[in-house]
Amino acid sequence: MGAAANDDLMEVRIESFNPYESRFPNRRVITRDALMLAKTLRAEGYKVVIEPDNGLPVYYLYSKGLREWFADPVNLLLFNIPITVITNLITNQVQKLLDWNDKQPSHNLNIQTDGSSISYNYLGLEQPVGNKQRITTIRKELKDGFDRCFNTIPPNIKFPTPIYLEHKPKIVGWCRLWEDERGLASEGYITDKLVKRRIAQNRLNGASVTGMASRTLCSICSSSYLNCNHIAGNEYEGQSCSNVIIETDFVETSLVKTPINPQCILGWQ
Question: Both 140 and 161 in a single domain?
């Protein structure tokens, strides 16, 4: 990450990562999880910097489907803040969003303090040696994979848009997308035999769209959802917070086990 912070400043730096750089260059991109952490920390009075701090616009990456929290790695670097303060804050404020079982990928939230080579998970436990390098490797593979997918020529020009499997760089079919009065609609076909079998067995039930939002509106304060400290789904003085996405770029569409939108259930002829 970047240069050292002020000696007296309590600061948290969150590393951005854009797996779609080849199609959407020059953007600092953070996930839903990273944004939620930034909001929680800012609300507690900590300065939060999205790295690299280079003035490029920050985009919020969201998926319209159910995913585990911290399914995508997040790197935090702390300046002048004890590790226990952050881990206690996360477990106290965010635990209702987490799946506290053995399947929760706790190694994907990597927390370090400035000047230390030791990293911790959100429970305050030391990560295995080399965990940050593991995250770097995962991110490179993800970015390289989407680079290859974006350069894949569709076999049928009628269906120009790839269908991915659970937001990973694996093309399992092709579709065309359009908007109607109900929102985004699609039509396509599946090329992967194993995926066809999973659909027939009801192990893949719907579609999920990933978008990259540049302008969002908070229903509580009517300001940018990226910059305010309210969290969608939480209640503030009896009013539930929601995030209204105003400007976004479509990134990809995937088949998923459980779509968050009941209108995104698969229908096949």
Answer: no
